[in-house]
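Hi R.,

Here's the chain you asked about this morning:
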Amino acid sequence: MSRSRQQLMSALDTMERVFAAEEPFPVTGCTYCYSEESLAELSGPLHLISDDLVSSVASEVPSHWDDFQRLYRRLAPRIVRPLVTGQLHVDEELIATRLVHAEWTSWDAPPADALRDVWAAWWRATLDAHPSPVFIRPTLAFLTVATGELRPWLDMWTATRTPAADAHLEDLVDDVLFEFEITDLKWGFYGEYHATAELLDWLLTDVRDRIDDVRLDEPFLLE
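And the predicted structure, written out as tokens:
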């Protein structure tokens, strides 16, 4: 296992220890979509909640729950570990949007800091290995939407001049230049983060020498 992968696993373990302090509470919500048995399961021990139920809650709209923020916070470790290891099978940008709805950056310092450490470790581990468990675009889109910032992740990529990082760069460019989607690139489940200006500027300046794609020379992009 690579050093960056070990650091990611360590960050995930730390996150789980930090969130272990979250106490169970009586979960109430939409009984049309969730049975009383499911609500009781969500109100019980975290490790006994089924993977399918975790995935369902991870993607559900906040209005289905009487205390969405508290529920999402308690389930965070069960959502985040499979997310970053490519095992959650829920749209990454949707999870990012839900975390924003849960106002994760306003949580107490230990849980919020533990998540920030996971994001950074996940990005380093992603850039360090190609292919990665989660494709580069959804990973970058998740980090951007969840944190509300794109540039810090791009700066880390600029500083990572490795074959794996360059292979990811090729993948991303091929993705966002398909039918020139980059001219109106919005990330987040509801398209809440407009990434075009920052990403295009970065591609045309900071890493242009690492990209062999003539589509970036189109005059309308340079304008």
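The chain has a mean pLDDT of 96.

Let me know if you need anything else.
M.
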